[in-house]
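Subgroup meeting minutes
Present: P.N., E.W., G.H.
Scribe: E.W.

1. P.N. recapped why we're keeping a running log of single-chain structure predictions: easier to compare across weeks, and new members can see raw inputs and outputs side by side.
2. G.H. added today's entry (414 aa).
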Amino acid sequence: MNAVLNKRSAVLKLNLIKIYISSFFRYFILFLPIIVPYFTSLGLTHQEVMTLQSVSAATFFLTEVPTGYFSDRFKRKWAMVCAAVIRILSVLCLIQAQNFRDLVVFEVLFALSLCFDSGTDTAILYDTSEELRHTSGEPELGSSGLLSNRVFYLQIGEAVSAVLGGFLASYSLKYTVYGSLVVALVQLFISLSVVEPARSQKDAQQEKAHGSGVAAVLSYFKNHALLSCGVLLVFINLLTFIGTWTYQMNWTHSGVDLKYFGYLWAGYNLAIAFAARLAPKLEASIGSKWLIVLTGSLPALGFLGMCYSGAVFAVVAGFALQFCRGFQGVTIHRIFNDHLPSSIRATANSFVSLAIRGVFALVAPFVGYMVDQKGIKFSYFCLGISSLLAFGLIFYFLLNRRLFDKNGQLALGV
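Output recorded in log:
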């Protein structure tokens, strides 16, 4: 019996490593640091570039919940496999793309692959850690540690791919696409080797009591504090998405040479990784409430800083949004997931992602139009002021009243 348990523990420990490796390669997308120049090289305007992201966001909106339910209802391993297979197909489409219509097909497939991944790796990490604790008696790493590691490896992977992608782009933009196909194949092999962790008895009881799927998720969102946390995740991710898809426009406008784009993208992702490592310690030091205040304020600081015309400001101010991504990816994401049962965790995360992509689908074309008509600097000024005012309203009317008690402690009784 002990031999069987020891073997299972070894498998589960290896499972954690595989998920971290999968996280490393999830955004190992070699063409990402030069994606805007790549699209414009095919004759697209800035508005068309942002419209493509709206198409991607709309795909997320339509498929997030079904793919999350697939992950919760069936094996999460197979959700990862589906993600890898569809990602391979999307890159093959990008290789052949010649115009806006071709790129729409690529965006739809690539978004669908990310939908199958969305929330699945987090759910597997939680379940593997829980079973490992019961199997071996070892103390859990803790949700902050699990999510911190996940975000760290994910961003390190994107940073490495940015440097390599920038190097390949100096020879040919197409090389970055071919390299991404190889990475997608690696992801497929990793996904096939993942072991499905067992669901705990507690989760089985919660599923029996509350059910699974959409109805169960909605019943949990009746908790106003949990819903407020979800609203914050949507708000912050919307702003960081806008930043991600306009950085390269700003760098180009500020005169940054294309050969540096990969290095800058790498630096930005290292900043997210560093913030993810720092978040648990900072939260322990200043508390969840003040870390959330800092996190929600950083996008406004970044956008307003990027209003300045100099190339240095165009780059340095963007780090504020990257630190925001790192902090929210551990702290706010942890608060949200800690209060969800395993049986609906992937579906609930898909609901939040659906909301993010749905709002982004509406906003992205408008941002692209504003950049084309008024310029990137004016657009950043408007984004900075509006994001600061919006976060103030969200914090005062939702978070301060719903997420925390009068002593500033978390009040998430689910």
